[in-house]
Write a structure and sequence with these properties.
The structure is a homodimer of 578-residue chains.
Chain A: H1 7-11, E1 15-16, H2 19-25, H3 35-57, E2 62-71, E3 74-81, H4 91-96, E4 100-101, H5 117-129, E5 133-139, E6 143-151, E7 156-165, E8 172-181, H6 192-202, E9 207-211, E10 217-220, H7 243-252, H8 258-265, H9 271-288, H10 292-303, H11 307-313, H12 315-330, H13 338-350, H14 366-377, E11 381-386, E12 390-392, E13 396-406, E14 415-420, E15 423-425, H15 433-440, E16 456-464, H16 481-533, H17 537-557, E17 564-565
Parallel strand pairs in A: 2-9, 11-17, 14-16
Antiparallel strand pairs in A: 2-3, 3-8, 5-6, 5-8, 6-7, 9-10, 11-13, 12-13, 13-16, 14-15
Chain lengths: 578, 578
């Protein structure tokens, strides 16, 4: 191997890349793929940031999006909100540093998560137009105007120009202006117009405006003045953690014992549960020593809750095991070994816990979904259902909401509006659990004979701190069994409501038709009868008209309202607290 | 808005995440999704590193993979190579720091690119088993044994234990041992066995061994002793760059003028091309000032190569524009503005360049593909075709290779083996350009009546410095038109070869059948004729046998060989040099 290079020579080229550099090369990972989708991604990142900021601050959002065409495939995108504003010293970080943000490290339901989105947009603008992003923001004091660029090699934001302006009116909010190329504005179902329309439906408390490149102003007005409760951080549930999570948390905690650590930093773990944990750890240690068949048998019995019988059957050895296991929970958390952490997580699998708290989940709510659908779509019938929270994979809370709108201004042809934490999903519909569950429902049973051609719109919102996306594009939700079932149940219920409505409507239409038929014959019958009974034709006629009127009166009074809304009011959402 | 939070309070939570932390949360982005796929990803990362290292160093690879089952969904994965080894002071970086490596910043065809793969594997092991990865390596001197963990919060490798051993035999190479949980070994088409089998087919110069968890040893022996040429870095082609690339390169270069920069750092740019560039920039500047219709017309003419006529038509103004444009190429590169860079890149679009150099692409080669297919699949017919390199999107060189194996030990049922830069692609086959192109071919024309049930295997290898993957999983190649067409052309050619073979085979089978039919009647005819011609039956019979033998002799001598290989030798691959 005389010709082979040695490693010194090869490692001369060894270099470290910044995360910005990585995403510059892999912009598709962030949704920048194709001219239309890239445009939608930019709008999405800016609007998501605006809505999250308002929500966290408890402000009714007012979001204005303006798209100016500067040339061929060359645009300026302006997004302005009335959020809390960004403190001056955070501007460079928020817009110029990837993986920096307020959310990634907290167990919280929010639209954004990673702290990549908006800096990704700034980078995309810079990559395609060479221009800095203009940020105008105020937290109530001076208005800061800053031009931000990203130093890709260092993953750092650079403010290339900054001006302070007085703020006599005390304006708060943020406006960003991105200049981009290689994107295209189209009014298609994958473009900004549709994206904002869907956003408005799922956020009836937000006022959203769009000025299209041709100057057309589109307003999606606020249809609810309720500010959604800001999301709260949720402690992890014992069934939703892996060993690595617990191990890392234990290394960081300030609590003094494993017991205190478990009770304090997880949900649904009480003193009593920790006592039980000790018993399970002891039992599992004993069982692990048995031969294969016996072990299998005992583990099955343990899963059936026979912990007491099992421990008792070990007699004195059982008591020793309990004493040893108790030592584990009295340790200092930082001294927990990986193996001990594994024992804890394994025991969790056999134990029963209350379902995770869901007070951190923030559904749109039935009345708000109906408001959103009515105000944007103007249907003749609308209904919505917020299911109570459930858990998937044993410990991850999620919740499903479904809205259904029928007829009225809705054009023929079925449309499914998909959302995750209120964020519209526009791409990769095929593999999404929402699509699969919708297709699995037998719509004929609900008087929808041909789903594809019905004037029907269904919206599905899946809420979770951890939405299980199928891929990094975050455009499709994985088909977790529990989520699939929840969506089906919700769809079947709104389906039944639609059926009831359509049945009523059909009955009424039928009745109106019959009355019209009868009325058509009144004149002829009156003429014939007047000869037979020898009464004036006019009187006989009047008699008949009265008869018909009386017969149909009952039906008439059930007036078909312009929009039928089914929710009695805001549903009481499972307001658990620990 | 008394209740709304102000931004100071909100920004208290602002934190910066490390890239390792990001990928810990998004392990699916790296291919760690599902127990089977995660196992394959681990093997893939380790084997890819081994093969790339050997290739860069010019060593015939010997790769040994051993998978030990330690418990339920708990394995130790050992991968050992005879590569150049890793210098002691790089061990922590290579295995413990993401986005660090020798390849990401170079324009080079290699299996790995990002410097994430192997540290991702180390992280996955640590996340699931809590264990450090054991690395044993030597560059020829001492053998270093190091246990590496990742400090996820800092994205840094930590060596938790290190020992030096003497190396009397001068061993070079690297062995890593990953202990992982939550994975599963299955001998399916998405598991390690199949992955390594496909790797062996595309790397006939590599000796690959696999020891399965049940102890079974599988050897994919080397079938070629040619060491592939190490890949070389390729300069970017003017048609394959965006403004941002050129702008960033201009900021970094040490060359003194834009002209020198363009000639020195791009391929296919000569003094003459720069002169032409000046003319195009001048013409574009003039054209941009025209009204819309005239502009459109002139740009079309420019695209048709009428640059001289256009410039002349501007007379004196044309000459002024030329002088101004010439100043641009005489500037210092660092002083190029974004706008000027855009002008250069736009001019590139109208100019004609030689196709990009392709001396950096490393096809497997026809003879090697055939060797690989024969040694692993044992077919009765094999053929391979390496097309000459082409360009997609105007400036990205790529090359397509196709192999076809038929009959013999191949079971009924069509199989498509997909590769990108020799790396097997096991997932997301549906949307891959290789699948689409294969389906688009009318296989009936090549005597394959029912593709799905034929004993047929086709392999397709797409080579490029930038393989256009459809998603971040890197398991499916986007359907770029030029790539699609190249694959189709290659498939049709190997299809014709298969048809020729099958025709020959059918003819032979037909002849053999006819001879057998004739021979069946020899006795009867001999008996009848012997009466008629009054000769002994035996003689008449012999006469007939001789006649038949002579008639079929010609055919007999074309013996059907056990394996039919079609390549005459290693094809002369377009060995361009600049």
């Amino acid at each position: 191997m005389k010709d082979s290079k040695d490693s010194k020579e090869l490692f001369k080229e060894f270099k470290i890349q910044s995360v910005s550099e990585f995403f510059r090369r892999n912009a598709a990972m962030l949704g920048y793929t194709g001219k239309i989708r890239s445009m939608t991604t930019l709008i999405h990142e800016a609007v998501t940031n605006a809505l999250d900021a308002c929500e966290e601050a408890g402000i009714l959002p007012y979001v204005r999006v303006e798209i100016e065409e500067l040339g061929s495939e060359h645009y300026k995108i302006i997004v302005e909100d009335n959020g809390p504003g960004i403190p001056e010293n955070y501007i460079a970080h928020v817009f110029g540093k990837m993986l920096a943000g307020t959310k990634a490290h907290r167990n919280i339901q929010s639209r954004g998560q990673q702290g990549i989105g908006i800096s990704g947009a700034v980078m995309f603008a810079q990559m395609t137009s060479g221009k800095a992003t203009r940020v105008i923001t105020s937290t109530g004091g001076d208005i800061i105007e800053a031009w931000v660029m990203i130093d890709v090699e260092k993953n750092e934001g650079k403010i290339v120009k900054k001006t302070k302006h007085e703020n006599p009116t005390g304006w708060r909010g943020t406006r960003i202006e991105l200049e981009v190329k290689d994107v295209r504005y189209i009014r298609s179902k994958q473009g900004p117009y549709w994206y904002l329309k869907l956003t408005a439906i799922a956020n009836p408390h937000a006022h959203i405006e769009l000025i299209e490149p041709d100057g057309r102003l589109i307003v999606f007005p606020r249809s609810s003045k309720e500010i959604p409760e800001p999301p709260v951080e949720m402690k992890p549930h014992p069934k939703g953690v892996i060993t690595d999570d617990v191990f890392r948390m234990a290394k960081k905690t300030r609590r003094e014992t494993v017991k205190r650590f478990l009770i304090g930093e997880f949900s649904r773990i009480s003193d009593q549960r920790v006592e039980e944990l000790v018993r399970y750890i002891a039992a599992l240690r004993l069982i692990k020593k048995e031969d294969k068949n016996r072990r299998k048998q005992l583990l099955e019995r343990l899963a059936n809750g026979e912990i007491d019988i099992i421990l008792r059957s070990y007699g004195k050895k059982g008591k020793q095991a309990l004493r040893a296991a108790r030592k584990l929970i009295e340790k200092e958390p930082a001294k927990l070994t990986w193996h001990e952490t594994e024992e804890i997580v394994e025991a969790f699998k056999y134990m029963k816990f209350l379902a995770p708290p869901t007070h951190g989940l923030r559904p749109i709510g039935e009345i708000n979904i109906e408001r959103g659908l009515v105000s944007i779509l103007k249907p003749e019938f609308v209904t919505a259902l917020t299911r109570s929270p459930k858990v998937y994979r044993g410990g991850v809370p999620f919740q499903v909401e479904v809205g259904l709108a029928f007829g009225g201004n809705i054009e023929n042809g079925f449309n499914l509006l998909r959302y995750a934490n209120r964020v519209p999903l526009l791409f990769d519909a095929g593999s999404c659990v929402t699509t699969l569950a919708t297709k699995s429902v037998d719509w004929k049973r609900y008087k929808v004979d041909d789903l594809e051609s019905a004037p029907l719109i269904i919206m599905i919102n899946v809420l979770s701190v951890h939405v299980p996306y199928t891929s990094t594009g975050k455009q499709s939700i994985a088909s977790e069994e529990e989520i699939y079932e929840e969506i089906r149940l919700a769809l079947m219920e709104v389906g039944r409501r639609l059926k009831r409505y359509l049945s009523g409507k059909h009955r009424k239409l039928y009745v109106v038709k019959r009355r019209k038929t009868l009325e058509k014959y009144v004149d002829e019958i009156a003429k014939a009868l007047s000869v037979l009974v020898n009464e004036p034709e006019e009187e006989v006629r009047n008699y008949f008209v009265e008869l018909i009127t009386r017969k149909f009166e009952e039906v008439e009074t059930e007036k078909v309202e312009e929009v039928v809304m089914t929710s009695p009011g805001v549903e009481e959402v499972n307001e658990e607290s620990e």
